[in-house]
Amino acid sequence: MIESKLAPPTLRALLAFGLFLTALFSAFAASAQQAAPSLPLLFDARERLARPDLSSLVRLRFLTSVDFPPFNFTDQNGKLSGFNVDLAREICSELEISDKCQIQAMPFADLKDALAASQGDAVIAGLAVTPELRRLFVFSRPYLMLPARFVRNLTVSLDGKTAAALSGHPVGVVKGTVHEAMLAAFFPAIKAQAFDTKDALLAALKERKVDAAFADALQLSFWVSSPASVKCCALFDGPYLSEQFLGEGMTIMLRQKDSVLTAAIDHALATLSRNGRLQEIYLRYFPYGLY
After folding, report:
1. Which positions make up the signal peptide (predicted)?
2. Burial track 17-36 (b if 16+ CB lie within 10 A, e otherwise)
């Protein structure tokens, strides 16, 4: 595996990594007392995706960024790390081309243009699939879905263990987000209270100005297991998935002409999903679980 030299991490990336690391250690401690969280299979166990011949491939250059922990970031030693980075390495290993693989980090805003200019072969950085991008690029099958979840204040008495128990209770959501729209569409009986920011929402939940909140499961899972939550709250019901509101999930973006490479990556993802190696990477970075 060849890795390109990284630029010095930005202050934003360092701060994000510090917050992620704190939450990750807390999550490991919490998850040690419960069963390992399971990663849903996104590939049909009966489906067999052919493995294309990559013998003529000169190299495979994955492009990513460094400011999206726990998916891609630089660790305290300046090494490129994260769920996406480890997954790229496993894909190369599965395809038996580790010696031809390169992982390069660059600013997130430059990824699309770099791929179009053939400065890389595949983008693995949590780039959301949009109709505009689909006209320009192709995407692998999803390898991870990021659901929405409720989180509740533990001092609140609820009559039940499903979202129906939240009817009549004030439930916070961040204004103008897909989660606000999803909450209204999925749970019209729930009384929503909108906040301007995620921090304002979580502060209100901690102070019991709302009884629960509805937001991104990734952020909530690390928050409830971190010192910031002071053990006030816990994930509740769910997870909730919706392509309409939350998109197609985490994918790898490639150039349209690279159909053979796209098929090879799909084959590798399906294999890693079935043999448990994708689950191992998931547990490495999400010990508290998203689902």
Report:
1. 1-29
2. beebeebbebbeebbeeeee
- Amino acid identity of residue 271, one-letter, is T
Q: Which two tokens stand for residue 191?
A: 């009384």
- Extract the runs of DSSP E, i.e. beta strands, from 11-136: 60-64, 67-68, 72-74, 80-81, 101-105, 122-123
The answer to whether the CB of 253 falls within 8 A of the CB of 127 is: yes
Residue 13: left (phi > 0), alpha (psi -120 to 50), or beta?
alpha
Phi, psi (deg, nearest 5) at residue 153: -80, 130
In a domain, 34, yes or no: no
Q: In CATH, what number is assigned to the domain containing residue 125?
A: 3.40.190.10
Is 46 domain-assigned? Answer: no
Total number of domains constituting the chain:
2
Segment 152-203, tens digit of pLDDT: 999 999 999 999 999 999 999 999 999 999 999 999 999 999 999 999 999 9
Question: What is the token pair recorded at 282?
Answer: 């998931």
Region label for 129, one of left (φ > 0), alpha (ψ between -120 and 50) or beta (otherwise): beta
What pLDDT is recorded for position 37? 60
Is 78 in contact with 66 (CB distance < 8 Å)? no
Question: What residues have CB less than 8 Å from 27, skipping those under 6 apart?
Answer: 221, 222, 225, 226, 286, 287, 288
